């Protein structure tokens, strides 16, 4: 009878585990007494407006409570953020980046594939950032779709939004404001836009990302930080 109960409990835990991965792209794994919450930001960051069903999205309203739970849960020791994103809603992405940066628990980000646009603040928001050599990051000025009024107020709005992003990125990485601004407004990298496309090693060389590395490097860093606390 006890074995039957244990089997039922094990099956329920496995079901919850799989549902968490499928619905939220999140999982919590424990090794050597250290529990790391892994959260993925994949596709496009969806903010105040719903995106088409045929686009892979990460909904910020899902991530906010997950980040809160990670910070408050006594059984969770650290956060691993894995990014492969084209960017998305600026305010939603910046809100998530601010939440991650304000966490007390050890955190690490890992850029695989791409960490573009608003993915840049998200990548630097963790206490330690990693990027694989084959990944790329696109730095470009704030853009908006839809109707834009040709008025001075519109220009000021864009400038203030860009200033917020620049201030966040440069205060949470080793990249200077002057260097970041020069990346924003380059004209020779992207055919139909301003900006710069950085490969993994380039992102590290300019101080935007802390280290070249993969999953094992990010996990090793978090385990060491959690063990030291």
- The average pLDDT score comes to 88
Which spans of ≥5 residues are poorly predicted at pLDDT below 50?
A: none
User: Into which percentage range does the β-strand content fall?
Assistant: 15-25%
Question: Which range best describes the helical content: under 10%, 10-25%, 25-40%, 40-55%, 55-70% or over 70%?
Answer: 40-55%
Topology:
Elements: H1 2-24, E1 26-31, E2 34-46, E3 57-59, H2 60-72, E4 78-88, H3 90-101, E5 107-115, H4 119-124, E6 128-131, E7 136-139, H5 152-171, H6 177-184, E8 196-199, H7 200-205, E9 211-212, H8 215-228
Parallel strand pairs: 2-3, 2-4, 4-5, 5-6, 6-9
Antiparallel strand pairs: 1-2, 7-8
Describe the structure.
Helices cover 45% and strands 24% of the residues. Helix 2 (60-72) packs parallel to helix 3. It contains 8 helices and 9 strands. The strands form 2 sheets. Strands 1, 2, 3, 4, 5, 6 and 9 form a 7-stranded mixed beta sheet that branches. The protein is an alpha/beta fold. The model has no long low-confidence stretch (mean pLDDT 88). The protein has helices at residues 2-24, 60-72, 90-101, 119-124, 152-171, 177-184, 200-205, 215-228, and strands at 26-31, 34-46, 57-59, 78-88, 107-115, 128-131, 136-139, 196-199, 211-212. It starts with a helix and ends with a helix.
Outline:
With 229 residues, the chain is α/β, with parallel strands linked by helices. 45% of the residues lie in helices and 24% in strands.
Descriptors for this entry?
alpha/beta; 7-stranded mixed beta sheet; two-stranded antiparallel ribbon; globular
């Amino acid at each position: 009878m006890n074995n039957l109960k244990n089997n039922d409990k094990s099956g329920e835990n496995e079901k919850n585990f799989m549902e968490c991965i499928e619905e939220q792209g999140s999982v919590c794994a424990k090794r050597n007494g250290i529990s790391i919450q892994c959260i993925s930001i994949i596709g496009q960051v969806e903010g105040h407006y719903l995106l088409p069903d045929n686009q892979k999205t990460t909904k910020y309203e899902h991530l906010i409570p997950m980040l809160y739970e990670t910070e408050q849960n006594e059984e969770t020791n650290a956060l691993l953020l894995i990014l492969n994103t084209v960017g998305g809603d600026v305010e939603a992405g910046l809100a998530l980046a601010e939440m991650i940066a304000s966490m007390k628990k050890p955190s690490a980000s890992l850029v695989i594939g791409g960490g573009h646009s608003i993915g840049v603040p998200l990548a630097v928001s963790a206490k330690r950032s990693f990027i694989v050599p084959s990944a790329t990051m696109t730095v470009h000025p704030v853009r908006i779709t839809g109707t834009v009024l040709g008025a001075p107020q519109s220009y000021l709005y864009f400038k203030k939004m860009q200033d917020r992003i620049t201030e966040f990125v440069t205060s949470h990485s080793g990249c200077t404001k002057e260097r970041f601004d020069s990346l924003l407004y380059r004209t020779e990298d992207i055919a139909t836009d301003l900006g710069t496309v950085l490969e993994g090693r380039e992102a590290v060389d300019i101080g935007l990302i802390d280290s070249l590395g993969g999953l094992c490097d990010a996990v090793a860093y978090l385990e060491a930080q959690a063990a030291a606390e």
